[in-house]
Amino acid sequence: MTKEPRLESAAPEAPLAIVCGGGSLPFAIADAVTRRGRPIILFALRGFADPERVAPYPHHWLPLGKYGWLVRTARKEGCREMILIGSVVRPALSQVRLDFATVRQLPRLVRIFRGGDNHLLSGLVQALEQDGLRVLGAQEVAPEILVPEGLLGAHAPSTRDRDDITRGLALIATMGPFDVGQAAVVANNHVLAIEAIEGTDEMLFRIAELRRRGRIRAHERSGVLIKAPKPGQDQRVDLPTIGPHTIEAVTGAGLAGLAVVAGETIVAEADRAVVAADQAGLFVIGVPAHGSSR
């Protein structure tokens, strides 16, 4: 009986390069890949990645603007595949000190900096792949980090919450061509906030401040944070992410819970996030993409 050929990664034994920004997610990915028996090397972004968290892993420190050094060093380490993960505040190109190899790429870099984050990241992926490094999505190397469909904790959204979720998903889908954010807050069918350059946490802090000032009349524990990828987004980079800090911010904003697109949203420290949501009385739900939450 003929056996089916076994499909494997293009480089199963080669180290995986992880370009590591801020937050806990890069380390969760590193641990998941290591458990599968694959070596990893962190390229920790200086000024963003936590030095204490980075220290136990094989790593190099990567200053912004050293694109040429990154490509050369990854090749020397035997890396053929790379993921980009973690939070980074986008700098102005004029503030980045470039190495010589990066200066040679300056016309291409200027083009990719002129646009939203999705344009920038897609351009960076294209540049890396042209230089011989295959860029993977974090979900490809650690699929367990994706939010499943359905409830993640003990609490469920009300009928009103589900209507708000449906409206929020439609709103994010409509905003997609403008390369804005990946999140919105809707309460009682009223859009309270849309994520822009400030990021999800700062948007939620703004909601909390508006509540304190009496600008939001919806009562406490009403309204939903909705997160979804932008239509047409390259899902290898910048998928929506939630975690314990998101739960804290949703609680502080006085919302009823949060909804994310199942299979297209990353959850960091899932167990901690679910426990925190249950303790705060919040619902967390994974819903189908661009559809009803029902």
Gist of the model:
The chain has 294 residues and is α/β, with parallel strands linked by helices. It has helices at 25-35, 51-54, 67-76, 100-103, 106-113, 117-130, 138-141, 159-175, 200-212, 244-252, 270-280, and strands at residues 16-20, 40-45, 59-62, 81-85, 134-135, 150-151, 183-187, 190-194, 224-227, 241-242, 257-261, 266-267, 283-287.
Task: Indicate the topology.
Elements: E1 16-20, H1 25-35, E2 40-45, H2 51-54, E3 59-62, H3 67-76, E4 81-85, H4 100-103, H5 106-113, H6 117-130, E5 134-135, H7 138-141, E6 150-151, H8 159-175, E7 183-187, E8 190-194, H9 200-212, E9 224-227, E10 241-242, H10 244-252, E11 257-261, E12 266-267, H11 270-280, E13 283-287
Parallel strand pairs: 1-2, 1-4, 2-3, 4-5, 9-11, 10-12, 11-13
Antiparallel strand pairs: 6-13, 7-8, 7-9
Helix pairs in contact: 5-6, 9-10, 10-11
